[in-house]
Write a structure and sequence with these properties.
This protein is α+β, with helices and mostly antiparallel strands. The chain is built from 4 helices and 6 strands, in the order βαββββαβαα. The protein has helices spanning about 25-35, 125-130, 155-165, 165-180; strands spanning about 1-15, 50-55, 60-65, 80, 85, 135-150. The strands form 3 sheets. Strands 1-6 form a two-stranded antiparallel sheet. A two-stranded antiparallel sheet has the order 2-3. Strands 4-5 form a two-stranded antiparallel ribbon. The longest helix is centred in the C-terminal third of the chain and has 14 residues, at about 165-180.
Length: about 180
Protein backbone atom coordinates (compact mmCIF):
# COMPACT_ATOMS: atom_id res chain seq x y z
CA UNK A 1 0.00 0.00 0.00
CA UNK A 2 1.20 3.47 -0.81
CA UNK A 3 0.95 6.48 1.42
CA UNK A 4 1.64 10.16 1.17
CA UNK A 5 4.85 12.03 0.33
CA UNK A 6 6.72 12.89 3.53
CA UNK A 7 10.14 14.20 4.55
CA UNK A 8 11.94 11.30 6.15
CA UNK A 9 15.29 10.75 7.78
CA UNK A 10 17.10 8.09 5.74
CA UNK A 11 19.80 6.14 7.55
CA UNK A 12 22.61 4.76 5.40
CA UNK A 13 25.70 2.66 5.88
CA UNK A 14 28.29 3.52 3.27
CA UNK A 15 31.03 1.09 2.28
CA UNK A 16 34.57 2.05 1.24
CA UNK A 17 35.96 -1.11 -0.37
CA UNK A 18 39.49 0.28 -0.39
CA UNK A 19 39.51 0.26 3.43
CA UNK A 20 37.94 -3.17 4.11
CA UNK A 21 40.50 -5.86 5.02
CA UNK A 22 37.96 -8.66 5.59
CA UNK A 23 38.39 -8.84 9.38
CA UNK A 24 34.64 -9.52 9.80
CA UNK A 25 34.40 -7.53 13.05
CA UNK A 26 31.18 -6.07 11.63
CA UNK A 27 29.66 -9.58 11.39
CA UNK A 28 30.59 -10.45 14.97
CA UNK A 29 29.25 -7.17 16.39
CA UNK A 30 25.97 -7.57 14.51
CA UNK A 31 25.49 -11.18 15.56
CA UNK A 32 26.21 -10.32 19.23
CA UNK A 33 23.68 -7.46 19.15
CA UNK A 34 20.98 -9.72 17.70
CA UNK A 35 21.68 -12.72 20.00
CA UNK A 36 18.95 -13.77 22.45
CA UNK A 37 19.60 -12.50 25.09
CA UNK A 38 21.47 -9.56 23.61
CA UNK A 39 25.30 -9.92 23.55
CA UNK A 40 25.12 -13.48 24.94
CA UNK A 41 26.79 -15.10 21.91
CA UNK A 42 28.43 -14.46 18.55
CA UNK A 43 27.23 -16.47 15.57
CA UNK A 44 28.11 -14.86 12.20
CA UNK A 45 25.39 -16.99 10.55
CA UNK A 46 22.86 -14.75 12.35
CA UNK A 47 24.55 -11.52 11.27
CA UNK A 48 22.69 -9.02 9.09
CA UNK A 49 25.96 -8.08 7.38
CA UNK A 50 28.33 -10.48 5.61
CA UNK A 51 31.73 -9.92 4.11
CA UNK A 52 32.09 -11.56 0.70
CA UNK A 53 35.76 -12.50 0.49
CA UNK A 54 38.21 -13.24 -2.27
CA UNK A 55 41.43 -13.64 -0.31
CA UNK A 56 43.54 -14.53 -3.36
CA UNK A 57 42.79 -11.17 -4.97
CA UNK A 58 42.60 -9.35 -1.62
CA UNK A 59 38.99 -8.24 -2.26
CA UNK A 60 36.43 -7.88 0.55
CA UNK A 61 32.88 -6.60 0.11
CA UNK A 62 30.57 -6.07 3.12
CA UNK A 63 26.94 -6.75 2.11
CA UNK A 64 23.94 -5.84 4.31
CA UNK A 65 20.69 -7.81 4.37
CA UNK A 66 17.93 -5.91 2.62
CA UNK A 67 14.40 -6.93 1.68
CA UNK A 68 12.89 -10.38 1.34
CA UNK A 69 11.94 -11.39 -2.16
CA UNK A 70 9.57 -14.26 -2.88
CA UNK A 71 11.29 -15.39 -6.09
CA UNK A 72 14.85 -15.51 -7.32
CA UNK A 73 15.83 -12.64 -9.57
CA UNK A 74 16.47 -13.15 -13.25
CA UNK A 75 19.59 -11.01 -13.18
CA UNK A 76 22.52 -12.93 -14.52
CA UNK A 77 25.04 -10.14 -14.86
CA UNK A 78 28.67 -10.85 -14.21
CA UNK A 79 30.93 -8.23 -12.65
CA UNK A 80 34.68 -8.17 -13.19
CA UNK A 81 36.76 -6.80 -10.33
CA UNK A 82 40.54 -6.85 -10.84
CA UNK A 83 40.17 -9.44 -13.64
CA UNK A 84 38.11 -11.83 -11.45
CA UNK A 85 34.49 -12.53 -12.42
CA UNK A 86 31.69 -12.46 -9.83
CA UNK A 87 28.02 -13.30 -10.32
CA UNK A 88 25.37 -10.72 -9.52
CA UNK A 89 24.29 -12.85 -6.54
CA UNK A 90 27.70 -12.37 -4.91
CA UNK A 91 26.90 -8.75 -4.10
CA UNK A 92 23.14 -8.93 -3.59
CA UNK A 93 21.69 -8.11 -0.17
CA UNK A 94 18.22 -9.49 -0.92
CA UNK A 95 16.95 -12.49 0.97
CA UNK A 96 15.70 -14.95 -1.65
CA UNK A 97 14.70 -18.63 -1.90
CA UNK A 98 17.73 -19.74 -3.94
CA UNK A 99 20.37 -19.17 -1.25
CA UNK A 100 20.66 -19.37 2.52
CA UNK A 101 22.48 -16.06 3.01
CA UNK A 102 20.67 -13.82 5.52
CA UNK A 103 18.35 -16.50 6.87
CA UNK A 104 18.25 -17.53 10.51
CA UNK A 105 20.09 -20.87 10.69
CA UNK A 106 17.60 -22.35 13.18
CA UNK A 107 14.24 -21.17 11.81
CA UNK A 108 15.04 -20.30 8.19
CA UNK A 109 13.28 -16.95 8.64
CA UNK A 110 14.73 -13.96 6.78
CA UNK A 111 17.10 -11.62 8.61
CA UNK A 112 17.04 -7.95 7.65
CA UNK A 113 19.36 -5.16 8.74
CA UNK A 114 17.51 -2.96 11.23
CA UNK A 115 20.42 -0.54 11.78
CA UNK A 116 20.69 -1.91 15.35
CA UNK A 117 17.54 -0.11 16.48
CA UNK A 118 17.41 -0.08 20.24
CA UNK A 119 15.77 1.70 23.14
CA UNK A 120 17.42 4.06 23.93
CA UNK A 121 18.68 4.60 20.38
CA UNK A 122 22.37 4.17 19.59
CA UNK A 123 24.41 6.81 17.79
CA UNK A 124 25.24 4.46 14.93
CA UNK A 125 24.89 0.75 14.08
CA UNK A 126 27.31 -1.64 15.79
CA UNK A 127 28.89 -2.81 12.53
CA UNK A 128 30.02 0.77 11.91
CA UNK A 129 31.29 1.10 15.50
CA UNK A 130 33.22 -2.18 15.18
CA UNK A 131 34.90 -1.21 11.90
CA UNK A 132 38.23 0.22 13.12
CA UNK A 133 39.47 0.93 9.59
CA UNK A 134 36.52 3.15 8.65
CA UNK A 135 35.37 0.93 5.75
CA UNK A 136 31.81 1.33 7.07
CA UNK A 137 30.49 4.82 7.76
CA UNK A 138 27.05 5.92 8.91
CA UNK A 139 25.08 8.92 7.69
CA UNK A 140 21.60 10.31 8.06
CA UNK A 141 20.03 12.40 5.28
CA UNK A 142 16.56 13.85 4.85
CA UNK A 143 14.68 12.97 1.67
CA UNK A 144 11.15 13.28 0.37
CA UNK A 145 9.79 9.75 0.13
CA UNK A 146 6.44 8.12 -0.43
CA UNK A 147 5.62 6.45 2.85
CA UNK A 148 4.56 2.85 2.48
CA UNK A 149 2.49 0.84 4.95
CA UNK A 150 4.86 -1.91 6.12
CA UNK A 151 3.91 -5.30 7.54
CA UNK A 152 5.02 -5.99 11.11
CA UNK A 153 7.50 -8.72 12.14
CA UNK A 154 4.79 -11.30 12.87
CA UNK A 155 3.25 -10.77 9.44
CA UNK A 156 6.66 -11.10 7.75
CA UNK A 157 7.40 -14.28 9.71
CA UNK A 158 4.04 -15.83 8.87
CA UNK A 159 4.48 -14.89 5.21
CA UNK A 160 7.91 -16.58 5.14
CA UNK A 161 6.49 -19.72 6.80
CA UNK A 162 3.53 -19.74 4.38
CA UNK A 163 5.90 -19.42 1.41
CA UNK A 164 8.04 -22.28 2.73
CA UNK A 165 5.38 -24.75 3.94
CA UNK A 166 2.12 -23.62 2.34
CA UNK A 167 -0.99 -22.04 3.85
CA UNK A 168 -2.75 -25.34 4.54
CA UNK A 169 0.14 -26.85 6.54
CA UNK A 170 0.43 -23.60 8.52
CA UNK A 171 -3.33 -23.57 9.22
CA UNK A 172 -3.25 -27.23 10.30
CA UNK A 173 -0.33 -26.52 12.62
CA UNK A 174 -2.12 -23.54 14.19
CA UNK A 175 -5.25 -25.66 14.69
CA UNK A 176 -3.24 -28.45 16.33
CA UNK A 177 -1.40 -26.02 18.62
CA UNK A 178 -4.66 -24.29 19.57
CA UNK A 179 -6.25 -27.59 20.62
CA UNK A 180 -3.33 -28.38 22.97
CA UNK A 181 -3.78 -25.14 24.92
Amino acid sequence: MKGELVRKKIRKINVNLDKCNGCRACELACSAFHAKPKYSSMNPARSRIRVVTDEINDEYVPIRATNYTKAACDGRRVYTVNDKKYSECSFCGSICPVRDLFKDPASGLPLKCDMCEDDPPQGEPLCVQACSLGALTYEEVEEMVEEEVKPDEVELGLKALTDKYGAQKLADTFARISQKE
